[in-house]
User: Fold this.
Amino acid sequence: MSPTKRLAGRHSRLIRAALVWVGIGSGFLPAAAVGQLPDSMAYRGAPAVVKYGKWVSLAGTIAMGVAAADAHQSADRYFGRLERYCGADQARCTQSSDGSYLDPLAEGYYQKSLQADRRARRWLLGGEVALIGTVGLFVWELTRPSRPPGNIPFEPTASFTPGATRLGLRASF
Assistant:
């Protein structure tokens, strides 16, 4: 199997895994499969899409960054092959008036390098968009009004009036 096909298979597996996590995090699972959330998680009031989607988005951002780095390394490898090919004999790397290489092998290395650079740029752009979405989801959840969870068994109370301070304890069962 060629290295290009092996890399393409790895990226498609990453994309499939990310889509599965998006499906899980966005609440497409049946309600019975999800179960009841503990009170400590439910009091924030954020929907499941936000609560779990931010982590899915962060994982997607990281995966796209890794894919971009991989594509960039691939572009560097092809360009290194071109440099070595041209270093052995400068006549191989003569360029035409439009800038293309006259030698088909040199032109092939150059085109593959450009193709891998474009692929890296697309992965990087996708990762940046996902990062913006991730930050937005984190900020949105953190700025939501919160209320205390309902499972606190002992809650102290205090009231202050001009002549007295009252302290109390409430126990819920």
